[in-house]
Write a structure and sequence with these properties.
The protein is an alpha/beta fold. The chain has helices at residues 24-39, 53-66, 83-90, 101-118, 128-145, 158-168, 172-179, and strands at residues 2-8, 44-49, 72-74, 151-156, 188-194, 197-205. It is built from seven helices and six strands, in the order E-H-E-H-E-H-H-H-E-H-H-E-E. Strands 3-2-4-1-5-6 form a six-stranded mixed β-sheet, with helices on both faces. It is globular. The two termini are 33 Å apart.
Amino acid sequence: MGAIYLIRHGQASFGAADYDQLSGTGVEQGAVAGAELLRRKVRCTEGRTGSLARQRATADIVLDWLGSAALAKEDPRWNEYDHVDIVANHGGGVRQDPDDPRGYQEVLDTSLAAWVRAGDRGPCTETWPVFAGRVRAALADLAAVLGKGESAVVFTSGGVIGTIAGHLLGDPEMGLLRLNRVTVNCGITKLVSGRSGVSLVSFNEHSHFEGRDARLLTYR
């Protein structure tokens, strides 16, 4: 069997002029995740990252620990949904407020539910069915090139990871709306790929952010 590790990017810059940059905490989280994969002796033979800056920066940090930085291939199908577009069309265009992250999360949760309900008829540039389809395609293409005993490490986002986990459990909508919101920055989700297809082994592992590194546990 082959293994696929889905790594959520490190903490981005919530409320800043450019959200799509790792915060100082995000950089530290990447180093801890890299050390964890090294401890597990993960031998990365395939690397994938979305095209978002926060995903690519996390890939650089983590894969450097594994000596596999050159393996990272950019594939925008691993990008997160466009939260700005979704909130603009389904949540009144509320902006991120660093003083009220919970308030923004509530608006985002409501907007995502409306986005899913709208289906192909929604007003957003990328509809939910299109998003879910390109995420499934990215996973299928990666699994197809993964040989027996090989491992792939993917750097992506919470919505993608939640959707994939939900898909493998038979309910991608649940994955987006319920699993997405609890994904930890630089958490690790493990899949295995074999003759019977791709299976979910673990979701959102984050024991590497316990103990001395507990201060680095973040959800946004």
